[in-house]
Structure formats: C-alpha cells, structure tokens
Design goal:
disordered C terminus, 4 strands, alpha+beta, single chain, two-stranded antiparallel ribbon
Length: 69
C-alpha cells in the first residue's frame, strides 16, 4: 500500500469514507481485497500470492509479508 494519484488504469473504491485506488490489472489477480486497520497500522489481505516477494526479501530478516511487514 502507498499513497498515489489515480491513473487511467486504476479504479477508485470508497469504503467507510476512505478512497482506495487499485490498479485494474492487479485487482483481477488479487480480488477479493480486504483492508483492516488496527493500532499497528493497516493490514492487507488478498488472494494474490506474495510468495515471490517474500523470498526476494528474505535478507531483511522477516518472513511475514515481505520487508518491514
């Protein structure tokens, strides 16, 4: 997740007063997407397999969701 401006290849979804910009191509691979918020920040769940990103980032010392997760 990152702050971004809408582009032609994006859709905007408004949920509970928040606007989420999602690339249309990514959405076809990742849906359904669920975003929750807790005291620790945002949590993103989807059907997308982030396994490749995790293995590419194993040197940062985390095994849950990539670097900094």
């Amino acid at each position: 997740m990152a702050l971004d401006e809408q582009k032609a290849e994006d859709n905007i979804y408004e949920v509970d007063g928040f606007q989420y910009i999602v690339d249309k191509n990514f959405m076809t691979k990742a849906q359904p997407i669920r975003i929750d918020y807790s005291n620790y920040g945002f949590r993103l769940d989807s059907s997308y397999d982030f396994g490749a990103a995790q293995s590419a980032c194993s040197s940062c010392g985390t095994s849950a969701g990539g670097c900094g997760a």
